[in-house]
Amino acid sequence: MSNLDRAPAPAVCGGRGFVVAEPVRELLTPRTVQLGDSTEVRRLLPNLGRRMVGAWCFVDHYGPDDIADEPGMQVPPHPHMGLQTVSWLHEGEVLHRDSTGSLQTIRPRELGLMTSGRAISHSEESPRDHARLLHGAQLWVALPDAHRHTEPGFEHHAALPQVTAPGLTATLILGTLDGTTSPGTAYTPITGADLTLAEGADVRLPLDPDFEYAVLAMSGETHVDGVPVLPGSMLYLGCGRTELPLRAGSDASVMLLGGEPFEEELVMFWNWIGRSQEEIVQAREDWMTGSRFGEVKGYDGAPLPAPELPPTPLKPRGRVR
Question: Which stretches of sequence are listed as region Disordered (predicted)?
Answer without folding.
Answer: 298-321
